[in-house]
Amino acid sequence: MNPTPPDLPTPRRLSAATTVVGVIGDPIAHSLSPRLHNAAFAALGLDWVSVGFPVAEGRAGDALAGARALGVRGLSVTMPHKEAVAGLVDRCTPRAERLGAVNCVVFGEEATVGDNTDGPGLVAALRRGAGFETAGRRCLVVGGGGAARSVVAALADGGAAEVVIVNRTPERATAAAALAAPVGRVGVPADASQCDLVVNATPIGMAGPDRDGPTTWPIDPMLLEGGQVVVDLVYHPLVTPWMEAAGRRGARVVNGLGMLVHQAALQLAAWTGLEPPVEVMWKAVDGGPSSG
Ligand code: NAP
Prior knowledge:
Largest sheet: 6 strands, mixed
Bound molecules: NADP nicotinamide-adenine-dinucleotide phosphate
Helix content: 25-40%
């Protein structure tokens, strides 16, 4: 009898020479990042391993110091540490500096560097999975949190003609719009009908409309139509009620799995200097460009 559950990878021979990377966060047990990284390491024939490190809020400094001392090559950083780590590394890349948030740490010989690959991950996923090129396009992002901010900055960096931000808290919408200057502005949900790309970077696409009607959707699906690409950054579930509603309107619907895969692929490139095997990484999370 094989005691290994079917969804676990075949154990590799780890040794004292194995290079370690990890993901820090809390909670961490359900993170898909080690699975993505390990699939890539195996495909590249690297003696590297990625593991999850549960790190409580407020302990990111200890985690970075410990990882550095132990020769860990890199860290993926998730909630609740992204902002804290931006202040703990020796230096940030310009995009991480601008966002004040880090999701990727590289322990170099000279310095510990923090980067943010979340937004670029979505832009890469859209190009690969939906054939969507950001340059010259009108985009709308719902949300003003960490994910929204990284997406807004990446869309502007990708040459978007306009990046409109809609968020419950106006001050956070204004702050997010500033990240996309000069093409960013605060907007209203109705602006979605004029946009090529609509991204929901809030958790509310999972709820669906309640007794108060469709105002609880990120964007009323009646404002969406064929020819638009509509993204919900959520990937659990793979299809949210809002995505279903947008799909019924004829929009090309994309979930958050592609962003997850591509942000991990960019981390892998930063740590190894190698071209990441994106197709293999997609397969590791049972997806494919068509599902993301
Ligand atoms: P966050 O920093 O906590 O921000 C949450 C955002 O959602 C805020 O703008 C908040 O508005 C808004 N929001 C929350 N509840 C709301 C409600 N009931 N009505 C209206 N707006 C509401 O979270 P985050 O890290 O940005 O994550 C946002 C979403 O993206 C999550 O669903 C997360 O799972 C997903 N995500 C996906 C990936 C990926 O790789 N696919 C990566 C990161 C995040 P206020 O500003 O008004 O509070």
